[in-house]
Design brief:
By secondary structure, this protein is an alpha/beta fold. It is built from 9 helices and 8 strands. The chain has one domain: Vaccinia Virus protein VP39 (Rossmann fold, 3-Layer(aba) Sandwich), CATH 3.40.50. The longest helix is centred in the last third of the chain and has 22 residues.
Length: 236
């Protein structure tokens, strides 16, 4: 894992109700679309997130931005009690139809409906960039995590190889919407998703935000050449 300094604060312009409505529209084929546009890499990213959390049987883990609960189900394979939470009712309904055994709750990352120190670990996968106030969400996740508990953020990032980065950005902005058009229930939403990925900070920038929110021992590891990065931290 790469150590990081703190970094500047920044935010993306998006309103919670607009994000929730967008994900409601893509819910029916969201998991399939993610697998197609990531060329199947999303499965490995979920496994890597679970491994990075170091969960043990009997521990409690919160999966913020869980969507349909596919990531929550992966976390539960560790033997931990995994709870998923998402702002989009459409995503939760789609998840409950196919994963009725997974606890999925409606809630806002900025106002988590849990008491202080309720979880041994907390994670958010490919959803932090959709939250209107990144640092506020990270502080709220720290609030519900016990002292010494762990955070893992799995989020799109910046490829480290310049040539690969150029190819990736070209795919992201030109080809991804076309691929989404073939499989997604609302392909226009993927134009926003591509733009949100391009506007998101790089590995060091996100690590700086995590540290600014009060998490300690912040570090990251690149996956798929930096297309995605796993950021880890510990609750003080």
């Amino acid at each position: 894992m790469t150590r990081t300094p703190t970094g500047p604060r920044a935010s993306l312009d998006k309103q919670p109700h607009e994000v929730a409505a967008m994900f409601d529209q893509v819910a029916s084929r969201y998991d399939l679309t993610n697998t197609v546009i990531s060329f199947g890499q999303d499965r490995g990213w979920r496994r890597a997130t679970r491994a990075a959390l170091g969960l043990r049987a009997g521990q409690r883990v919160l999966d913020v931005g869980a969507g349909t609960g596919v990531s929550t189900a992966e976390l539960a394979t560790s033997g931990a009690y995994a709870v998923g939470l998402d702002l989009s009712i459409g995503m939760l309904r789609a998840g409950r139809r196919v994963r009725p055994e997974v606890p999925l709750l409606a809630g806002d990352a900025l106002r988590l409906p849990f008491p202080d120190a309720a979880f041994d670990a907390v994670t958010i996968s490919l959803a932090l960039r959709n939250v209107v106030d990144t640092e506020a969400a990270l502080r709220e996740m720290a609030r519900v995590t016990r002292p010494g508990g762990r955070l893992v953020v799995c989020e799109f990032s910046t490829p480290t190889n310049p040539v690969f980065r150029t190819v990736y950005l070209s795919y992201l902005m030109r080809s991804l919407p076309s691929v989404a058009r073939a499989v997604a229930s609302n392909p226009d939403a993927y134009v926003y998703l591509a733009e949100s990925i391009r506007a998101w900070p790089d590995q060091a920038g996100l690590a700086g935000r995590i540290a600014a929110a009060g998490w300690e021992r912040v570090a990251w590891r690149n996956l798929t050449g930096g297309v995605v990065a796993l950021h880890r931290a510990v609750r003080s």
